[in-house]
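help with this.
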Amino acid sequence: MRHLLDTKTLSREEALRILDVAEDMRDTQSREIRKLPTLRGKTVVNLFFEDSTRTRISFEAAAKRLSADVINFSAKGSSVSKGESLQDTAQTLQAMGADAVVIRHGASGAPHTLATSGWISAGVVNAGDGTHEHPTQALLDAFTIRKRTFGDDSRGRDLEGLSVTIVGDVLHSRVARSNVWLLTSLGARVTLVAPPTLVPQDVSAWPVRIAYDLDEALASGPDAVMMLRIQLERMTAAYFPTEREYSRRWGLDAERLAALPAGSIVMHPGPMNRGLEISADAADSPRSTVLEQVANGVSVRMAALYLLLAGERTDTTAEEDAR
């Protein structure tokens, strides 16, 4: 694997390979010593042009548990804030000997530009670009659904026959886009539920069902319900009347939670707006996988970095390293 830029072009086989290697990585995280020597001598740069605590720390933990050296680069207070271009920043990282660059950027397509420009020879991982994609979030979500559904029998399994309902601010959500392509590639049926104003114009080309009534969508008994954060910071217009009205019509509250089938799980990529898209009852219930998603994120990002930087090694190596 040379780069991880999106899930739309990620094949089913590649996705399953990442998820299965993540199983190996997850097994190591319950040990007393969780660190592996696999990427010793490699340098991973977290290049974040947008604020993110959860994703950056997750990638940092993943790289350090593989014994890589980690450099955290924040655009704020750096030369970028003084007008330095992405090209100049990339060439600086190249000169420093970066082996992998994890990039989060406000412009859709920035990771692809970095990966294909020739400015840098490092592998590139997209940690979220504009309203385009967030592939490792979708991979950790798929990993979490698979683990909750199949338990210790997860390895090698896809999501064929499972149904996932994604609810909320689809328009601004790179998490939703990445999940649509990945989950459908793995065989799941995906339904998007949102106010009409928060549904993208090009959604007719997506392999999903669109619904506007949350209660109607939940009546079909989805295996997983993923609530999306309302991204108020990206909104430049009034997409719904009031937050109270949004919560009443599209929020997951205690009543809707109780109506779900016994086996349904509740997901959220975080950070949560409690009381807006999800109630405390739903966020803190035994059905909630929010904290599992965070923990699984480290395993999935360990797998992605491993395959990026040690991918030329044999298929059995990851399992052997994890022993």
